[in-house]
Model the fold of this input.
Amino acid sequence: MKVYDVIVVGSGPAGSIAAYTLARDNFQVALIEKKRHPRPKPCGGGLQEKARRLLPFDVSGVVERVVSGMVFQLGLRDRFTRRTTRPIVYNLGREPFDSLLVRKAAEGGAAVIEGEGLISLEYKEGYVSLLTEHNRYLAKVVIGADGAASVVRRVINPRGISQEAIGLICELDKDNSRPSIPEDLYIVDWGTLPPGYAWIFPK
Done:
């Protein structure tokens, strides 16, 4: 059985960039993802400018809108706006963005394994053995990038802190007859959802 230098579990932005970077530096890398791309992911559709500068390749082809300012408000009132002359955030859909990052990881030399959710992993005889829904893999090192419900985290630290929160995520078509929502600003509101917050960003 092949032994990878590194297996990355989870092909979101963190996992894909880790796989790309390691493969580019000639490590034998596998990137394991339980779903297949393109996969729906409504949250996290904003790429900060400082993060964009750190990316080793161009992502402008998947950017939908450039945001150059923020609206802050309390309970839908007391609004104030701050704008800059430089981009703050690049809004993009997660499906094309994540698919681009996975493709770059594969082009960099990583083996991309999709449709195999991780079931368990254990360390034995100097290697990490990973059992997925269909196969078993061996690695010298494992990177857990499999999100809030991380299987890797639960195995490494089964008594770790578990947090629960309620969130509502939706994507709505803008009614162009109502220009009150600007297309180049994030809107962040505190207090409307006590004790939480809400935000709107254009895509």
